[in-house]
Amino acid sequence: MRTQVAIVGGGPAGLLLSHLLHLHGIDSVVLERRSQEYVQHRVRAGVLEQGTADLLREAGVGDRMQREGDVHDGVHLQFDEERLRIPFRELTGRGITVYGQQEVVRDLAERRRRDGGQVLFEVADVGVHDVTTDRPFVRFTHEGVERELHADFVAGCDGFHGICRDTIPAGTRTVYERVYPFGWLGVLASVAPSCGELIYANHANGFALHSMRSAEVSRFYLQCAPDESLDEWPDERIWAELQTRLGTPGWTLHEGPIIDKTVTAMRSFVAEPLRHGRLFLAGDSAHIVPPTGAKGLNLAVSDVDRLADAVATYHRTGSTTGLDGYSAACLQRVWRVQNFSWWMTSLTHHFGGPDAAFERRLQRAQFDYLRTSTAAATTLAENYVGLPLR
Ligand code: FAD
Ligand code: DHB
Predict the structure, then answer these.
(1) Alpha-carbon dihedral sign for residues 43, 44, 47, 50
(2) Can you give the pLDDT at residue 390?
(3) Based on the domain organization, do 31 and 111 belong to the same domain?
(4) How far is the CA of 285 from the centre of ligand 1 (A)?
(5) pTM over 0.90
(6) pLDDT 10s digits, 42-62
(7) Cβ(179)–Cβ(269) under 8 Å?
(8) How far is CA 139 from the centre of its chain?
(9) Which of 40, 101, 105, 125 to mutate to test the pocket of ligand 1 (most atoms within 8 A of CB)?
(10) 103 in the same domain as 120
């Protein structure tokens, strides 16, 4: 098989890259390890930056998001029982759209199908070869048959546990990493959201987040141990903890049937550079942020926006400037977002340890600063809604 860009991974990064390349008249084939059913039902991100929502609309894949997504103009922070609203529309003129990642993936997959795009699900034994020559290829097994996909470029969009990053020799790759001493218990519940906007709460028992997916479905997260067993969290305990950590006088948290529970460990991770020969990494394959800033999906979108543009410029003009500058340009945004995500995490979580009381005083001081300083609130707001994509 031959195509112009071989894309490993059919998550949001891989599917959006394939679609953006198609808009530029460039062929690609997406190779995805999981089934279509699995990819489209994986519950993950929910917050789209203004730039992400704009890009999806401009790329013609934002119609359902426009109808069903919920635009928010602010977010709440809470310290113990004190709740503070950051009015980011007022402070920055921009907003966020709450729309589930699996909906974005469904919209992209459907559009790829309608445009005749090739997305092969349930591929196995994927290996990337000869990326430092001008004839790279990907070998894989599909429907029991071993195949080779030859391309001009290979895009590694295969997430944190993918194989592309390890194709880059250890000697030419530097990894920066921080592992946090906690994880998130993610909960999906069939109950109307109890607040029109998100609430990030720092309570003496730990972090909690109130989010939503629709008028009938709420999404919650609770700080827990990184390797916490779901057996420790029967539904009654989840609701009791959410009531405690999110509670504030005069506000009621509505309860309903819990339909999904998962535990995610938390890390900050960057592998530099994002390019090796004709292999380009994008999204979680190259970097992970702790989810507190809601940035992972948005960073993946920003990477592939840049990559699609660089490949298109190369095909149109022969110029390699965009391709050559891809890694450095992405890394600049990646590190800004790493900083913000680490900061939001540090503000709202308990790290434990001997100086826990000191840490909580610092968090209180930062919270008070956000309450009393427009400059501090604006810094949070402009990072949360997202800095311009390019
Ligand atoms: P992935 O979504 O991981 O996709 C990679 C794909 O590659 C997968 O489909 C995988 O099956 C496939 N694959 C892996 N290995 C292979 C292989 N060898 N061969 C072929 N295919 C392979 N981000 C936000 O922006 N906002 C949020 O609110 C937010 N909340 C989050 C909450 C949670 C609980 C979690 C876990 C994450 C959250 N994120 C959030 C992060 C976001 O989900 C990820 O950053 C995003 O999925 C990255 O997209 P991706 O396409 O790079 O990687
Ligand atoms: C959601 C996830 C996040 O990581 C976050 O910071 C806010 C909301 C969500 O899944 O709704």
Answers:
(1) negative
(2) 81
(3) yes
(4) 9
(5) yes
(6) 888 889 999 999 999 999 999
(7) no
(8) 28
(9) 101
(10) yes
